[in-house]
Design a protein that fits this description.
Helix content: 25-40%
Strand content: 5-15%
Largest sheet: 8 strands, parallel
Structural class: alpha/beta
Number of strands: 12
Number of helices: 14
Order of helices and strands: HEHEHHEHEHEHEHEHEHHHEEHHEE
Amino acid sequence: MMNMETTNGIFGDEGYVFIVAEIGKAYIQTKEEQTNEQYLKNAKELIKAAKESGADAVKFQTHTVEDEQLPMAITAPHFSGTDRYEWVSRLTKASPLEFWQEIKRYCDELDIALFSTPMSRGAARMIEYIDPPLWKVASSDILDFVLLDYIAATGKPIILSSGMSTEEELDASVAFLKKRTQHIAILHCISKYPCPPEEIYLETIPYFARRYGVPIGFSDHSLGHKAVLAAVAKGARIIEKHFSLSRDLWGSDHKVSMEPSEFKKMVEAIRANVFVDASQFGQGIKVLDEIESAFRPVFRKSLMASQDIFADTIITAETLYAMRPQQYAGGLPSEQYESVLGKRVTRDLKKYDPITEDVLASL
């Protein structure tokens, strides 16, 4: 196994494939709310199964509804089971800091790495208490420069998922990060659940390697593991697969997850260098398509006031939140973060008011 203290398996060792069991929020398994103790029990069962299946790391998602989701009834295209505000509120309540501290203790006991996808800066601040070895950024958040600025300042490696993004947006995100850190990796990803094999476009992996000059991996939302083996043959150095105890459980990701026995077979095949021809997974380079575009208004973010702000106040990072859903939030896109910093507010703003051009003035 790789040495997680240095994360050389991602950024140094050319011969090693870093395999991540994406638990995400799979510790939530019923439509009805359960106790925090049950969520913790579920999470530990998933971690133990991932370790036994050969994963190098488990990855969760972390939420703090206060700075992630505005209280609007919005339904995501891939999960109609609940509106986003209700769902993010439940996730926030289900996993307070004490949850992550106990998860970290358990992962250390089992000798498996733990990291997370923080879905906002507040979530990243909470996870920083358990000192994760690296960060993962969801494709929905690669333009959340409020979040990226914070995690880059920690000096830890950052893995970006390309998912529901255009090439120009990925360029902008990488450029923003490269001004702050050189420890970056990118995952080729298709934001479809599940993704049809012919739309995976694995030639994107070597293309990204040439374009960005950083390690490239593959976050796979297709069923089975043939695409993963073909991705490794194309040069993927990081593999991420959703992981669940059963695809029959309730929730947004279980249906596209691998169960433990399947995950174990995938790991064994990767370690045995089993070859699969990539030609069956679509030709050419991946571009944003109509289905992925449907996610963007719900998941992209706008700049909002993080507190009451008086007229003539100078905007700083701490006076800003980047929040969903951009479609209705009304603020400037979160990637305009740097252009807003240092400007003066021309009138009083309440917490969660949108940051717009007409309320800003240069010094």
